[in-house]
Structures are given as C-alpha cells and as structure tokens.
Amino acid sequence: MTIDNYKFAGKKAIVRVDFNVPLDENGNITDDTRIRGALPTLKKILEEGGSLIIMSHMGKPKGKVNPKFSLAQIKDAVGAALGREVKFAEDCAKAADAAAALQPGEVLLLENLRFYPEEEGKPVGIDKEDPAYETAKKEMKESQKAFAKTLASYADCYVNDAFGTAHRKHASTAVVADYFDADNKMLGYLMEKEVKAVDNILSDIKRPFTAIMGGSKVSTKIGIIENLMDKVDNLILCGGMTYTFAKAQGGKIGLSICEDDKLDLALDIMKKAQEKGVNLVLGTDCIAGDKFSNDANTQVVSAMDIPEGWEGMDAGPDTRESFANVIRTAKTILWNGPAGVFEFDNFAGGSKAIAEAIVEATENGAFSLVGGGDSVACVNKFGLADKVSYVSTGGGALLEAIEGKVLPGVAAIKG
Ligand code: AMP
User: Fold this and answer.
1) What is the set of domains in the chain, with CATH numbers?
2) pLDDT tens digit string along 107-163?
3) Which protein residue has the closest C-alpha to ligand 1 atom 4?
C-alpha cells in the first residue's frame, strides 16, 4: 500500500516517526528538523479525517523510564506544528483506551518506546558472555513480539516514517508491521523520499560518480567505502580518517587523530582502488593547529609531514582545490562526513569548499545526496542545504542503504 492510495477517513493510523530531537537542559527543542520532516505524513492523515497515534523513541533510556527522555517534553511543540491539541499516553504499552477514544482528526502521542527494553529487543542486565544470554535473548524476542502486537492493536493501519531508525529491527520499526496485512501498512512521505534518493544514487548513476567520505574514523566508514569502490569513479577521502592513510604510507602526522590498528586497512583500500580503477583522491596538504581549539595557532603543512606537537585539523588550500576540481565535473555525488573539525569556524573552510563545489555541480545538473549527521550539519552551517539535490535525515540508515543492505524498516512493509 502507499500513503497516497490509502483511505484514512475514519481510520486510526499508528505512525512511527523519529522525534528524537535534541533538547537543551530545560527540555526545550534546539532543532525541530525531525518534527518538521514528519509533518507531510501526519497532516495528510489528519486532513483526510483519520486519527493519529504517534510513536517515537528519544535518546537512549536503555529500557527504563527516565523523565530526561520523556516525550511529554515535546508534546506542545508537536501540537503547535500540527495546529491541534495532542493527547499524551504516559505508558506506550497501556494506551489501548486512549487510542480507542480517539475521534477523527485527533492526535495521541505515546511515551518514549525505549522506556521498554522490548522496543530494541535486547536483553538487559545480562552480559553477552553469560551462558544464559542466548535464552534471555530468545525470551526477549518473544516479549518484543507481544509488545509490537500491543502497539498494533491500537490502530487500523501502520505507517513508518522514521528513516533514521529504518536500519533497526525494533518493535515499532519492523516487528509491528507483521500484525498488519499488506493493504494496511505503508511508508510515510519522508521514508518514500529517502528510499527514492538512495535509489537514485544506486540505480540511476550518471557518470562521473564522485563520493566524498570524511569524518573522524575509517573504521566506521569501511563498509560503505568498500561498497562504493564498485560503483564510483572518484573517491575523495577527507577529514580525520586521512591521517591513518598518511601514517600507513610512512608519513609523519604529529598529534593528528589516527587509528593505529587500521594502517593495513588503509593500505588495502588504496590497493583496491587501484585494482578497480577508482580515482582515490587524498589530501596533499592540511591546516595544522597547535591545540584542538578554534583559536589554535595554525600553519599549512604537507599532509605527510606534520610537525611534532601539531595536528591536522582541516584540508589545506591545494587539497581544497583538487577536491573541488573532481567534484565540479561530477554528475552523481554522495557526501558523508566533514573534511575537518568544522564545528570550529577556523577549521570549517575545507568542508565549506566541498559544499560549494557540490552546489556548483548541482547547478550544472548533477544529482547530489548529502547525508549522515555531520555533513548535514555542515550544509546547514553554510546555508547551502537547499542548493543540493537531497539532504538525507538518516545517518546509519542512509549508510547501510547505500552499502546495499536491506533496511528492516523498509523490508517489513515492502516485503
Ligand atoms: P564521524 O562521526 O566519523 O562522521 O566524524 C565527524 C567528526 O569528525 C566531526 O565532529 C569532526 O569535527 C571530526 N573531524 C573531522 N576532521 C577531523 C580532524 N582532522 N581531526 C579531528 N576530528 C576531525
């Protein structure tokens, strides 16, 4: 079923959204992007005369009730965004009466799903090494099914619009879908858009295809780097992870971050790129700082020869130019991970140069997908988010989808 074809009038829809929004110490929302992202789906259901049961997680309460992660804190903001009153169910597993009482056009927000360990379905308080762990795991899987069945019992149909958690097989993201037949479960608009954007990158590749992978660690990106190697023409590696490559090649990296146990892996990636005819682009110079701070003293140095006591913090001018030259001519672009410590304004220039080159390529007809928390923060910081083709809300989910993995949240609906 699709959200556009379903008749919501008089129906109760239980919708999994990602309202895991950042809060300040007083419980005020500091960035409401995720709430805004779900509005098209939620409004469509209400405007058609359906009623809404909204469910989400927030933070990592680890299966225990914790007021710090209560969704009650965002109830009024959700109400303001929807332009109507929002009722609140303080216990997401005991909301049957509140759900049954809902009239068309009414909204019920369930308390944080992760107050129940069943949501994630992992046994709590027992070590993985413990011989009893496997039994506990099996028992938890059964409780997870019961929990999902309870959630399903509240509604006539299920909508999943939480791309950020689509790579998790949790009660509310996947298991719950087993209790609805194919005609009564569907992806929300945000999910549809995300799935289509990934599809654009993977199935309709216009060449050259350039991927830019940055961030702090090669270890967290290795899956996607290896997968991309079969698809891309150019692979730009930037950010903190590149010092592992410099060291692996015998470079001096001073105090730069480095994963010493990944030196062989870095060399292996370089070898694979060569074998597969991928143009691997690494930085040649960098901006080094004498401390990890925005007001550090800086100097431009060779990426292979960083002086003792200094650390590589951003891409240097030659590197920015070589990256931009490769990006500008691309027709398909994927960007994940910054080129430096962009949170410090003085070390955001490399990431900005990448963002600007992506915008230029997009203006010249390229399809550009920016995804994964920090690169999204980058394009937002530079005010360029609306000048790229698509900004994904998913971090881990986006990377796993691009790695070619089937996302449980999508599979549960599409089969
Ligand atoms: P990741 O979570 O692996 O995508 O990495 C994102 C983080 O990498 C950001 O917080 C950046 O500040 C950080 N980062 C990027 N380049 C560097 C660098 N040269 N040194 C230290 N951290 C970096």
Assistant:
1) 12-190 (3.40.50.1260), 197-402 (3.40.50.1260)
2) 999 999 999 999 999 998 899 999 999 999 999 999 999 999 999 999 999 999 999
3) 215
